Amino acid sequence: MTKAKWLLVLLCVMNLGLAAMHLSGYFFLFLKPTGYLIPLVINIIVLFFINKKLWVGLGLVVGIPALFIHGLMILFMEYDYTKIDSPYDSQSLMIEYRDVTLGETTYFYNFYKTRFGVIGKLLENQSVEFMVRGPEYPVEEGAEAALGAHNPTWISKDIVRFNSWKGAKDVYLASSSSAVSTKEIDNFILKAESNSDGETITINGIEFITRYNPKAGQRWIDVLSDGDEGPIPRQQCSRIVRNEERGYYMLEECTHQWEYELYPLTDGQ
């Protein structure tokens, strides 16, 4: 096989690989700031090398306009990036963000989980968008401050909580971690208040069980976590309540401390 054919095969493998990754939600993170500009340039250079006569004209007619349009798209979208490292040393979270100001400022965020910082997977249905007005918040602090990206809380190895200007946002790096809704939590609260015994719910990887002692007329909630470490360790609490002011379900009157922020009232969306 000639050198030209080898180059053509490698080019096809690269293009098919990038297409397959894109369709499955995976990306080379180092390509995100410029999109697919680098692969596009590689395609033009390799094809030009393989057949100069054919690709000189095609490069001028197709390649240059494609690069120009792509450049405009990058210019107008212009995302920035920051990485949040996990204290569990298992994986990290890459945040893709930008803002648009038209009287008010609108912030856009996408999230990617990554283990080594090279390849990331888009966390679908977890993107965030919210609008703020200048008098409400100091917009000059930027998009990272608006999200609360400088002080995130790792609820578990698969859950990161941001305290944004518009309330709490929980990002789930594993789909199984988000298998709860505010409706389910409300139903669990009703069952606890009706003195049900043995009802369970799992929130952010922690199991909660309603308990009731009819002789003593006492009810409580058992909190079962992976030991005594983490934001909410194993213990007993009196109740879960909705706190509209703080924007959280609160776990109250617990063995180790009075209360814990348990889960956002808005499902973290």
Write the layout of secondary structure elements.
Layout: H1 3-23, E1 26-28, H2 37-50, H3 52-77, E2 80-85, E3 92-102, E4 104-114, E5 119-122, E6 128-132, H4 143-147, E7 153-156, E8 159-164, E9 167-172, H5 182-193, E10 200-203, E11 206-213, E12 218-224, E13 235-243, E14 248-254, E15 259-264
Antiparallel strand pairs: 1-5, 2-3, 3-4, 4-5, 4-6, 7-8, 8-9, 10-11, 11-12, 12-13, 13-14, 14-15
Helix pairs in contact: 1-2, 2-3
Order of helices and strands: HEHHEEEEEHEEEHEEEEEE
Rg over CA atoms: 25 Å
The SS-based structural class is alpha+beta
What is the overall shape?
A: elongated
Straight-line N-to-C gap: 54 Å
Figure out the total of helices: 5
Helix content: 25-40%
Task: Summarize the main sheet.
Answer: 6 strands, antiparallel
Can you tell me the number of structural domains?
Answer: 3
- Tell how many strands the DSSP assignment holds: 15
Instruction: State which percent range the strand residues make up.
Output: 35-45%
Poorly predicted spans: none
Nearest-integer average pLDDT? 80
Protein described:
This protein has 269 residues and is of the alpha+beta class. It has three domains: 3-77, no CATH class; 80-172; 180-264, no CATH class. It has five helices and 15 strands. Strands 1, 2, 3, 4, 5 and 6 form a six-stranded antiparallel beta sheet that branches. Helix 1 packs antiparallel against helix 2 (37-50) and helix 2 runs antiparallel to helix 3. The longest helix has 26 residues, at 52-77. It is elongated.
Give a brief outline of the structure.
The protein has 269 residues and is of the alpha+beta class. The chain has helices spanning 3-23, 37-50, 52-77, 143-147, 182-193; strands at 26-28, 80-85, 92-102, 104-114, 119-122, 128-132, 153-156, 159-164, 167-172, 200-203, 206-213, 218-224, 235-243, 248-254, 259-264.
